[in-house]
Amino acid sequence: MTQRTSLVCLLLWLGALASAGAAQPQTGCTRETLNVTGLPVTVSYCVISATRSADGRETIANVQETYSSPRGSFGQTAPLSFLTGDDPSRVIEDVSLTHLGMTGTLHLTLIMRSQRVLVEAAILTPGAIVVK
Question: Is residue 59 one of the residues assigned to a domain?
Fold first, then answer.
């Protein structure tokens, strides 16, 4: 193999590694795509910080939430209250799909496990359509 061929192979390999790394969510973040009435809706949650309530019963996680579909996207930071000591712990969140160019509301059951927020279940209303 010539030096030039070796250099090209090395550059291609390094480029592939960089692309693979860029596609991964950052630590503490999760990403999932849900099929909502035939459209992909990607949900992403990144735990920014987590603190215990004054009485120690709850863990308040400040979470950067991002929602996107082919028709639109939006993000918000939300404080989510999980029971301390339960792993996983659950919380219910309602997300209007208006900003995604869709109608309805996703009723999400979110779990916090090892400082990461995941979608456990999702129901679309009106109609109580099970998404996950």
Answer: yes
Domain membership of residue 77 as a residue range:
26-130
Q: Is residue 103 part of a domain?
A: yes
State how many domains the chain has: 1
Q: How crowded is the C-beta side of 111, counted as CA atoms within 13 Å?
A: 11
pTM for the full model? 0.75
pLDDT tens figures, 12-48: 333 443 433 334 445 689 999 999 999 999 999 999 9
Is 112 inside a domain boundary?
A: yes
Q: Report the distance separating Cα 37 and Cα 7, nearest Å.
A: 48
Alpha-carbon distance 122 to 130, whole Å? 6
- Does residue 15 belong to any structural domain of this protein? no
pLDDT tens column, 59-79:
999 999 999 999 999 999 999
Q: Assign residue 109 a region: left if phi > 0, alpha if psi is -120 to 50, beta otherwise?
A: beta
Contact assessment for residue 71 and residue 80, using Cβ atoms and an 8 Å cutoff: no
